[in-house]
Automatic annotation (TrEMBL):
Record bears the keyword Transmembrane helix: yes
TM annotation in the entry: 12-30
Keywords: Membrane, Transmembrane, Transmembrane helix
Phylogenetic placement of the source organism: Bacteria, Pseudomonadati, Pseudomonadota, Gammaproteobacteria, Enterobacterales
Organism of this sequence: Salmonella enterica I
Name this polypeptide is given: Spermidine/putrescine ABC transporter membrane protein
Length: 37
């Protein structure tokens, strides 16, 4: 039970670590696009 919870949290941390930079990049691109138009 605890092991499953830890594994789930670990996977969530990995996905967050992978996806947060991508999300930041998309947000920056959208902001540039909004400023340009």
């Amino acid at each position: 039970m605890i092991g499953r919870l830890l594994r789930g949290g670990f996977m969530t941390a990995i996905y967050a670590y992978l996806y947060i930079p991508i999300i930041i990049l998309i947000v920056k691109l959208l902001q540039q696009f909004a400023v340009r138009h």
